[in-house]
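Form 7-S
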Amino acid sequence: MEVAMRAVNTIKSLRETRLSAMRHPSEFFDPNRISRPTDLNQAVSRISYNTRYFSGNYGLIIAVLAVYALLTNPLLLISLGFLIGGFAAINKWAPEPMQVGEHVVTQKSLYTGLFVIGLPLLWWSSPLGTFFWLVGASGVLILMHACLIEPGVESEYASVPESV
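Output:
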């Protein structure tokens, strides 16, 4: 129960911090603000400003791509479910050593069995390939968007300190 409460509190704090920085989709996908930067300095300044300004939207893009990557790699989803479910089951139902026939099964031997089966299954499901696909796909999408979208008028005043 306390794990569920911690998860709810984490989701609330995430919503308050990251999702409050999300910009409206009409601003994020504004076709009138798309233009090619004239030089590398302008591209770098656009990327610098837009990654801060649209950070909530970019975080959502990464989360959606991560869910897509898990759903399109069912073996990775199964192996992660097997390992996480195995840890939860061992902690819940086998905290004490138990006698099975002539053998004593301890928590250590159950974890060893879980690793012997789970780690090759996880390795076979290629989590590194999925991770690097996620990094590459999100990097390309975010950098292209940040480079092509012109900063709004408010960006001119972002570095001016308030004197009132």
